[in-house]
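Trying the structure run again after the queue cleared.
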Amino acid sequence: MERGAWHTAVDELADHLSVSYSALEAKQGRGRLAPETMARMNDYLERRLDRSLAIDDLADVAKQTRSHFPRVFRRTIGMSPHQYIMRLRLRRARRLIEERWPLAEVAVVTGFSDQSHLTNWLRRIYGTTPGRLFPRR
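Done. Tokens:
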């Protein structure tokens, strides 16, 4: 299996487990975001990944206070809002890179400050550069 395909498969499995687990936990426990709140949050994030996202705005979407939101989000998803947003951005970036978009454009439409910022995050999460992760054919 190619390196890019392997990362995609692992990410899809992790996403499935995260969504399944968080939905189950949200139904069972207090102090977690409800599945419909997470659906609203995901819709909000997907439409705004190219922009700077403030914790106050995310808290408003979730109908939580700014101070309480990060804790309840972490209990629901298992990671901080920032980690989750970066994961969404990287997932979208990977798809665009696989479609052969130029890295500078990918960085802009996925909310990274520039190509270097995107490359650093790809290296941090996947342990390699975009060129090695998605070789050009």
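The domain at 3-133 is CATH 1.10.10.60 (Arc Repressor Mutant, subunit A). Worth checking whether this holds up in the mutant runs.
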